[in-house]
Amino acid sequence: MAIQTSRILVGDVGGTNIRFAIAEAKGAEVSLADVWKRLGADFPTFDDALDAFLSDSGVRPDGASLGVAGAVSAGRVELLHRQWTVDCRTLASRLGSTVSDIVLVNDFVAMARAAPELDAEGIETIRSGQASHEGSIVVCGPGTGFGLAVLKKLRMRDPDRPDGRSEWTVLGGEGGHQVFAPQTDMEWRLFERLKSELGYVSNETVASGSGFQSTVLALAAVLGVSATDPDPTRTELLAEKGDPLSLELCRLRARTIMTVAGDAALSSAASGGVYLAGGVSQALQTFLSEPSAIERFVNRGPRSPLMEPIPIHLIRSGLAPLLGAAHLWLDDKRRGWL
After folding, report:
1. More confident residue, 1 or 324
2. What's the distance, Cα to Cα, between the start and end of the chain in Å?
3. How many separate domains does the chain show?
4. What pLDDT, in 10s, does the model give residues 183-229?
């Protein structure tokens, strides 16, 4: 019997960039074509960006699967960091009657679903360990915002999967908005200053691009140094040159990321490993590997031994959320649920 090939419109709609591609799925194998990336600020609405991609690619897909930076409710997402709305019904009408299925999820659900599908070229190891094949997997990290999701391998007998490949389900959420947990005197002073200004201080505030301006100015005040024209694109470079403010900011963000990852791994029994993702995580790779950051992941008091074997990887592939979106579409098509 011939294996059917499906062409799926896949998208990664973030707070800064928007990416589309056509995923060609043959059985459980996925390849990406017509990859398209633009700044979201270049388009007034999501529909304008979609129309531009469809015009450029000239492809009419069989289905669609989008990861969007926001909470999904009743087939609709309002982006937290951009005044856009993505709606399944509107999307279906724009794509036409040939589209048989539309999947709309939080962008980190798509990112998480990609983790077990990535090859060695798509990831780098931050901390070696011994992953359990039965354990959950945590995927988290900051970009414009701060995403978090958990993967769990399903125990099920599926006659349609004679190849023995694993089935996965993804639990998404808004974990990046959990409260920032200071652990040093400097972090407490930073927390108090940000709290007085913002009212609520989340991990996203401290570690992501959306909170950069507030955090760097508050950190400068705490350290008693100048923060003239802070620039997120130059922070890592200035840190490498020894600039005190940039260096402390990078280490603060790395410790925050590792604290979130450790909390999530402990709460979800993620013995299958942790994957860090997002543009900020990639930029901070050197600082994520420092002992002070690793210690934030491992140190969980009497439960620290549970953390010791857990490996930590960094997702470097820019195509990961598109790949994950395609696999979610296949999961939904095969099982009828996510």
Report:
1. 324
2. 27
3. 2
4. 999 999 999 999 999 999 999 999 999 999 999 999 999 999 988 77
Max intra-chain CA distance, the chain? 71
Together in a domain, 222 and 323: no
Determine the Cα–Cα distance for residues 277 and 134; give it in Å rounded to an integer: 22
Within a domain: 107 = yes
What backbone phi and psi angles, to 5 degrees, belong to 72? -90, 130
Q: How much is the pLDDT for 166?
A: 73
CA–CA distance, 306 with 300 (Å, rounded to integer) = 9
Euclidean distance between CA atoms 116 and 179, whole angstroms:
29
Same domain, 308 and 244: yes
The DSSP result for 4-27, as a single string, is PEEEEEEEEE-SSEEEEEEEEEET
Report the DSSP beta bridge partners of residue 313: 125, 275
Q: 218 pairs with which residues across the strands?
A: none
CATH number for the domain harbouring residue 186: 3.40.367.20
Q: What pLDDT digit, counting tens, does each position of 131-160 carry?
A: 998 899 999 999 989 999 999 988 755 555
Residue 99 vs residues 7, 59, 107: alpha-carbon distances, Å? 10, 12, 21
In a domain, 125, yes or no: no
What pLDDT, on the 0 to 100 scale, is given for residue 98?
A: 65
Q: Could you count the other beta carbons within 10 Å of the beta carbon of residue 128?
A: 10
Q: Which domain holds residue 75?
A: 1-118+317-338
Task: Dump strand ranges (E) for 154-256.
Answer: 168-172
User: By C-alpha distance, which of 209, 184, 175, 179 is closest to 195?
Assistant: 179
- Give the C-alpha separation, 145 to 143, whole Å: 5
Q: Is the pLDDT of residue 2 over 60?
A: no
pLDDT at position 111, please?
Answer: 96
State how beta strands 63-68 and 5-13 pair: parallel
Query: Which single residue is written with the structure tokens 């890592």?
Result: 236
Asked if 28 and 163 touch (Cβ cutoff 8 Å), the reply is yes
Indicate the pTM of the whole model: 0.92
pLDDT confidence of residue 1: 45
| CB contact at 8 A, 320 and 278 | no
Got the DSSP string for 265-288? HHHHT-TT-EEE-SHHHHHTHHHH
